[in-house]
Amino acid sequence: MRALAPRLQGERIVGAEYRPSRIFRGEFPPELAGAQVLQVRRYGKFVVADLDRGFLGIHLGMTGKLLFDVAPHKHTRAIWEFAGFRLNLEDIRQFGRVLWGERLPESIAALGPDPLEVSREEFIERAKQRRTPIKAWLLNQKVLRGMGNIYTDELLFRARIHPGTRTDELSRTALARTWEAMRGLLEEAIAKGGSSISDYVNTAGEKGTFQLAHRVYARGGEPCLVCGSPIEKIVLLQRGTHFCPRCQRR
DNA sequence: AGTATGACCTGATGGC
DNA sequence: TGCCATCAGGTCATAC
């Protein structure tokens, strides 16, 4: 976002090329030639461009990338031409999505609050009303927009909470700790450009460095940095889940 | 309400 | 430059 928004803001789309892919869900977006980009913002896991004639929402899924001025290849799914440069949407696995509309598409608008904007009280109250594992709750985009598998595991380690703990069984103190851990983690991760596991890069083609600060994610079998116990890797909610069985209690 | 399972895709990696 | 299984930053639909 840091490189994306300033580059696009105020620019006009000259033309677009869309290639057949499931990320479009059966229908290509309009040409958009002449449309001006008013603003580009992150909205959960979506990048949303506010245009002078509607909205374009892009979800990068697992392997999506937005890259400036690279040669198109077989994983290029969309190309937006601007005056003097172009923006490619690449997505190997096609788990991404491109949405558009004259209004912000409902599936984007319906997402929960930003994790950095939700108040501690609201966070606690809403958690208390649910009885699902804290990890499932945090990953639910209607609860909070933007939390994914890496950051969920990392923040639960920092909060010293077992990922399978039911939200309604967590004390207010524990939930407050989770909220604090979430904020601290995200601020640090954003400052470091995110986590690059294999292929994630920003628009400048650069990797983030937050993966170097991971304390549990992808560290199964390695010693906990706090207590030395081996980090466990289990499957919870069909997602690889990493935690310290000694530090993280139910 | 919540959980479990499989599907959707492609590529990397490791064992044989 | 083989073959097969497993795994991956995420949803999504369906069945219990």
Describe the structure concisely for a colleague:
This protein has 250 residues and is α+β, with helices and mostly antiparallel strands.
What order do the helices and strands come in, and which of them pair?
Elements: H1 4-8, E1 13-18, E2 37-43, E3 46-51, E4 54-59, E5 64-68, E6 76-82, E7 85-91, E8 97-101, H2 106-109, H3 120-128, H4 134-139, H5 149-159, H6 172-191, E9 232-236, E10 239-243
Helix pairs in contact: 3-6, 5-6
This protein binds a DNA duplex (16 and 16 nucleotides) through helix 5.
Describe this structure in words.
The longest helix is centred in the last third of the chain and has 20 residues, at 172-191. The protein is α+β, with helices and mostly antiparallel strands and 250 residues long. It is built from six helices and ten strands; from the N terminus they run H-E-E-E-E-E-E-E-E-H-H-H-H-H-E-E. The model has no long low-confidence stretch (mean pLDDT 94). The structure holds a DNA duplex (16 and 16 nucleotides).
